[in-house]
């Protein structure tokens, strides 16, 4: 397959209390684990970044301005778990000031993809070329109305001819209840629109996509 899934995530923007969401706090409040249950804590050594707490198929990181939940392996089943854990953070800490929530699906290829090359192609490139400029990267973005929020679609081509497609299911709101509702969307609904955008709108052949299924 030419296109693989990577860096899927669920993000809630807000003023998170990291004194509460310590590794033990994440274990108890978000993972729902009994006290004393072992979890993996990953601490960055060379960069200034929040620690990550991993249990089973899910990784949680808490910065001062956002909570990030990643599936350790990109699959729709694991993303459903990540969305449920993110929603649990809103239920457990409803007083947290919030501003937005989103679930993000990224697909990447290191090969030339004709459909994506066509998507990012623009007559402006020829104008730059005529003026003796070399275009290194190209990108297009669209915001699509969906339910009460939006799907932000970004297609990009890098200098090494790698392509990526990012779909950000975004809801901006300071209402905890609104964000909980957004995170309660069944993953099957999101998947239906992901595949519609990839195959129907962008014209990518279905056989080129890694569907990120569970190996069960």
Give a short overview:
With 216 residues, the protein is of the alpha+beta class. A 9-stranded antiparallel sheet has the order 2-3-4-5-1-6-9-8-7.
Q: What is the H/E order?
A: EHEEEEHEHHEEEHH
Largest sheet: 9 strands, antiparallel
What Rg is obtained from the alpha carbons, in whole angstroms? 19 Å
Q: What structural category arises from helix and sheet content?
A: alpha+beta
Strand content: 25-35%
Mean pLDDT: 92
Low-confidence stretches: none
Distance between the termini: 20 Å
Q: What characteristic shape results from the CA principal axes? A: elongated
Count of DSSP H/I helices: 6
Can you tell me about this structure?
This protein has helices at 23-30, 76-92, 114-120, 123-130, 176-183, 187-201, and strands spanning 4-14, 40-42, 52-55, 58-62, 66-71, 98-109, 138-146, 149-157, 163-172. Strand 7 and strand 8 (149-157) form a beta hairpin. It is elongated and about 65 Å long. It has a nine-stranded antiparallel sheet with strand order 2-3-4-5-1-6-9-8-7. The chain has one domain. By secondary structure, it is of the alpha+beta class. Helix 2 (76-92) runs antiparallel to helix 5 (176-183). It has six helices and nine strands.
Give the helices and strands, then pairings.
Layout: E1 4-14, H1 23-30, E2 40-42, E3 52-55, E4 58-62, E5 66-71, H2 76-92, E6 98-109, H3 114-120, H4 123-130, E7 138-146, E8 149-157, E9 163-172, H5 176-183, H6 187-201
Antiparallel strand pairs: 1-5, 1-6, 2-3, 3-4, 4-5, 6-9, 7-8, 8-9
């Amino acid at each position: 397959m030419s296109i693989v899934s990577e860096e899927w995530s669920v993000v809630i923007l807000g003023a998170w209390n990291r004194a509460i969401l310590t590794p033990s706090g994440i274990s108890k409040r978000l993972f729902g684990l009994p006290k004393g249950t072992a979890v993996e804590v990953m601490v960055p050594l060379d960069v200034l970044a929040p620690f990550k707490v991993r249990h089973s198929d899910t990784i949680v990181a808490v910065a001062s301005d956002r909570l990030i939940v990643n599936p350790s392996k990109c699959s729709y089943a694991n993303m459903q778990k990540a969305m449920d854990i993110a929603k649990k953070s809103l239920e457990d800490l409803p007083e947290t000031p919030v501003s937005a929530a989103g679930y993000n699906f990224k697909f990447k290829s290191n090969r030339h993809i004709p459909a994506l090359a066509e998507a990012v192609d623009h007559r402006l490139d020829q104008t730059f070329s005529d003026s003796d400029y070399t275009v290194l990267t190209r990108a297009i973005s669209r915001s699509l109305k969906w339910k009460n929020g939006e799907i932000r679609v970004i297609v990009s081509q890098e200098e090494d001819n790698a392509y990526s497609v990012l779909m950000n299911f975004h809801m901006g709101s300071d209402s905890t209840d609104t964000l909980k509702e957004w995170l309660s969307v069944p993953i099957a609904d999101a998947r239906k629109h992901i595949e519609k955008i990839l195959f129907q709108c962008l014209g990518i052949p279905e056989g080129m996509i890694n569907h990120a299924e569970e190996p069960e």
